[in-house]
Amino acid sequence: MDERRVENVAASFAALIAERRPSSIALSGGSTAQQCYEFAATLEYGWSGTTFWFGDERFVPVEDPDSNEGMARTVWLDRVRARSVESMTGAGPTVETAAENYDARLRAAGGVDLMHLGLGPDGHTASLFPGSDTLDVDDRWVASAGDELHPHPRLTVTYPAIAASTLVVVTVAGAEKREALARVRAGDQSAPAARIVAEEVVWLVDAEAAG
Ligand code: 6PG
C-alpha cells in the first residue's frame, strides 16, 4: 500500500496532478475533496487538455448544496477552462438511466487517468457503502447506489471502473478517519476502501489520520 504521510493533503493532491498531468480526472465529494479542489484551482496549469468526470454523485440538481458537481464547479471547474465536464447527475432523467448512460460513456473513454477517492469513517469510498449490493457489481462501471443511511439516491463507480484507472489517489485527513484507515491497512474487506485496486493507488494521509 503506497501510503504517503503528508503535511497538507490538499497541497499534495494538487502537486500530484501537476506532476502526472492526467488528461482525465474523476472527482469525489466531501469536505476533504473540496479542500483538494480549492487548492487545485490555484495551480498555474492549463486545464484545457483535461476532461473531468465524477466518481460518485448524489442524484440532485447541480444547484443543490449536496451536489458533488455543484461543489466542484463552485470551487474549481467554473474557475478554469477545462476541455469538458462529464456530468453524472445530468447523464439521464432518472438515476437508473443516468447510471446506464454514464456507464457507457466511461467505458467508451476506457476509464480515467486519475481517479480521486475519499475515505468515509465507516470505510466507504465513492458511494460504495459497507454491505451494499453495489460492492458485488462486476459487469457495470457505474451503478445506482445509496441507502437509508445516506441522503439522496446516488450514482457511483464500481470496483471495475476504479480498476480501469491508471492512477487512483485516495485522500485521507483528520483523526476521524484513523480507524477506517487502520482497517484498510489491515486488509479488512468489510471496509469498501480496502478493496480499491488499480494500476497505481496512492494514499495521501495527514498525521491526524495516520495515527
Ligand atoms: C460522497 C463522497 C464520499 C467522500 C467521503 C469522505 O459523495 O460523499 O464521494 O465518498 O469522499 O465520505 O468525505 P469527507 O472528506 O467529507 O470525510
Outline type: globular
Strand content is 15-25%
* Category by helix and strand content: alpha/beta
The portion of residues assigned to helices is 25-40%
Oligomeric status = single chain
Question: Could you spell the SSE succession in H and E letters?
Answer: EHEHEEHEHEEEHEHEH
Spatial strand order of the main sheet? 1-10-9-6-2-3-5
Structure description:
- The chain has 211 residues and is of the alpha/beta class.
- It contains seven helices and ten strands.
- 29% of the residues lie in helices and 20% in strands.
- The strands form two sheets. Strands 1-10-9-6-2-3-5 form a seven-stranded parallel β-sheet. A three-stranded antiparallel β-sheet has the order 4-8-7.
- Helix 6 links the parallel strand 9 and strand 10.
- It is globular and about 45 Å long.
- 6-phosphogluconic acid binds next to helix 2.
Keywords:
7-stranded parallel sheet, 3-stranded antiparallel sheet, globular
Task: Give a nutshell description of this structure.
The chain is an alpha/beta fold and 211 residues long.
